[in-house]
What does this fold into?
Amino acid sequence: MNANQSQPDETGAQPVQAQTRKARRALSRITRELTQEDLSQAGVQKMLVEELERAEEENSDLESFREKFHSVDKDLSVSNQKLKGWKSNEIISTACIAVGAAVIVYAIEAWKTQPSGWMALVVGGILTCIGIVAKVIPL
It folds into this structure.
């Protein structure tokens, strides 16, 4: 994949191109100022009503997109907060297991001088158990 392409967020997701609004070429060169005489013609009135209806329909579509955006934005914020808590739990449990295991290994050397050996073994065991419990029980 080259640098210009971005990977989809999910496995199997396909990027979708946004629809671009196409200009109306037939009406692009018409002057936009309308006089009272122009406004009194039935054809102009029909075109204005049609354009108004199109704009109202597009507005209602955009309002539904706004509602969907806010809903998804709120869900994303909640998910990010949950992820922060999960990361914190992972860091704490991993640190407890690592320090507990290191203290247990140190207990072998400290066993020569009692009560340091027993204390190191107990503290290492407690830290390791706390780390395992923190992994098993989610916050």
